[in-house]
Write a structure and sequence with these properties.
This protein has about 160 residues and is of the alpha+beta class. It has four helices and eleven strands; from the N terminus they run αβββββαβββααβββ. It has a single domain, classed as M1 Pyruvate Kinase, Domain 3 (Beta Barrel), CATH 2.40.33.20.
Length: about 160
């Protein structure tokens, strides 16, 4: 019984820490995001240079590479950034985090989860391709509480207040 409990605790720890696999921005809304090696995040704004940034609750969008892989397994030809996510992560269970969770990215950036999933107003190109899209179910949105730079391979982890 003790082994099972320790295994469950280890699994929980494994899902609260991961890495940044990709950073994606777009200059204009409605255009495909491009991958960049690093980014600067600002409080009350989001990612500098991203068209979806601004003083609202969805400043930064995040999606796990594991979620993207689910879509690839269904036959979608997709890659990080194709779901309009700003940050693609690996190893952290984003879609299981409650609203209000704080995330630390890199050395100084702190995000607060503000929304889980989103309503799909019109079917995107991915949905049209295979009849499904994972972003409305497993993507999350956050606002920037503490600014700073991030880059690919930085750590992302759940933190306590």
């Amino acid at each position: 019984m003790k082994f099972i409990l320790l295994k469950k605790q280890a699994e929980k720890v494994a899902t609260t820490k991961g890495t940044i696999k990709a950073i994606s921005i777009s200059k204009e809304k409605g255009t495909q995001k491009i991958n960049v090696p690093d980014a600067e995040l600002r409080v009350d704004h989001g990612i500098v240079g991203d068209a979806h940034a601004g003083d609202w609750h969805r400043q930064v969008s995040l999606l796990g590479i594991e979620s993207i892989q689910k879509m690839i397994d269904k036959g979608a030809q997709v890659a990080p950034g194709n779901f309009a996510e700003n940050i693609t992560t690996e190893g952290i269970g984003l879609h299981s985090l409650p609203i209000g969770t704080k995330l630390k990215l890199g050395e100084s950036v702190i995000l607060e989860v503000t929304q889980l999933g989103k309503k799909c107003h019109s079917h995107c190109a991915i949905y049209e391709q295979i009849g499904d899209c994972i972003m409305p179910r497993e993507g999350i949105f956050a606002k920037v509480l503490s600014p700073g730079p991030i880059q690919i391979s930085d750590t992302i982890e759940v933190i306590d207040d």
